[in-house]
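SUBJECT: A protein chain and its fold
Encoding: whole-number codes for local backbone shapes
RECORD BEGINS BELOW THIS LINE
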Amino acid sequence: MSFMSRILELESFDFDGHFQEVTSADVENSLRKDELREQDLFNLLSKTAQDYLEPMARKAQKLTRQHFGNIISLYAPLYISDYCSNACVYCGFNCGVQFPRTKLTIEEIEREAAAIAATGMRHILILTGEAPAQTPISYLEEAVTVMKKYFSSIALEIFPMDEEEYRVLCKAGADSLTVYQETYDREVYKEMHPRGRKADYEYRLLTPERGARAGFRALNIGALFGLGEPRKEACLAALHAHYLEQEFPDVEISLSLPRMTKAKGIIEPKNILSDIDFVQFMLAWRLFMPRLGITISTRESAEFRDRLVHLGATRFSSGSKTGVGEYSLKNHHDATVQFEVTDDRSVDEVADMIRQSGYQPVFKDWELV
């Protein structure tokens, strides 16, 4: 049994019709419960529930403080290669976009790591495109080993691997894995990934399960909003997170809500996720899964992120650069970015905002021993 079985069960399910049948009484009933079931998730993700955002927000804030305290964890992304063999039509790194590709040497990775660590950051997220010939596991293992000198927590957002390959990277010091399904709708997925290894929907869907079995202590998943129908995507992402939480109770599970932003050579978003939908989805997730981590990236504006601090978010990226070598080796104008950063505040500025909001910014809360 894997989450693929659940996806197949739901393929004929009428999500839109089910959301439309939700009444105010259904939403109010779900809000009164201490422990929510799948039907409650549907109720809180429905359009009807948008009349109840205030009580949802109050309950979400209480649950977040109960399970996480008054803290917001911080991390920074580090792109070490933009080589990619996939043709994802929504990604600025896809193999059809013509630009000079870059892969950092291990010495360059260390320079980038030192520049990020100088900001006080101790949690890092390593990213690559999907090009195993350019970034083989030996290269990634060496990169993780170098990172250990600067960071207490090393997360990976790289191409999906087999369980044994993940074990190698865990042994080297990586502790967390991020993998977005992009879209849970198999037909849309096929359209968005016309060729390349990433075209294998099932292999990607089961990546978090392989990662958990390999020993990662934390998993971060999600959909890229702008591809499939948003409410269906939010529902399936939450069901996926819930499945992982039940199957792997000793692993920290987080969800992200990345929205498509501008990048060179990519399509326009097909389904725009509004700010109010974004907030509603986040609140519904928190009420459905009180111990769920919720990550908010610099794809979102500074003003919007400031408000999300109070609504259930637990982790922010900050000081982000989304091109290879941008921290110490290249100027922004010389780099090709995967997506444009919207909140371009420094690490110190984001940390100050968190303090002024009544929360504590956390740079380090875990160490591999």
